[in-house]
Write a structure and sequence with these properties.
A motif (Histidine triad motif) lies at residues 98-102. Residues 5-114 form the HIT domain. The protein is α+β, with helices and mostly antiparallel strands. The chain has one domain (5-105): HIT family, subunit A (2-Layer Sandwich). The protein is 18% helix and 22% strand. The chain has helices at residues 5-10, 60-74, and strands at residues 18-21, 25-29, 37-43, 82-85, 101-105. A hairpin with a 3-residue loop joins strand 1 and strand 2. It starts with a helix and ends in a 9-residue tail after the last strand. Zinc ion is lined by residues 1, 4, 6-7, 46, 98.
Length: 114
Amino acid sequence: MENCIFCKIIKREIPSTIVYEDEKVLAFNDIQPVAPIHVLIVPKQHIESVKKLTEKNASILMDIHLAANKIAEKLGISDKGYRLINNCGPDAGQTVLHLHYHLLGGKDLGPKII
Ligand code: 5GP
Ligand code: ZN
């Protein structure tokens, strides 16, 4: 998708620090981290948000969760744990309209998500 920041990162048109890649998923460090580990996990296929998931494309969620599992293992936070967050739509503060999950960890994140 033209003018999509994450599509440009996927195509290597914008630099990023990539921490994981497979056939369907790319994961890279957030440019403005809010935790010691703050990785964005995105599908290589442009899907705008959770709202645009259908029975045809929703299997990407499995790929994203399996990627999260591997990334946490690779970054050494698998045992301590981590938080996976998705923002969908304006009230949730979604700023990039390409489906993404925030993987946060590396410290005690507290009991609440807001
Ligand atoms: P949202 O608020 O849409 O859930 O999250 C978008 C995230 O993308 C934000 O945490 C923001 O810091 C990150 N972000 C925006 N532009 C870039 C970029 O060009 N590179 C990287 N690595 N992260 C970005
Ligand atoms: Zn995109």
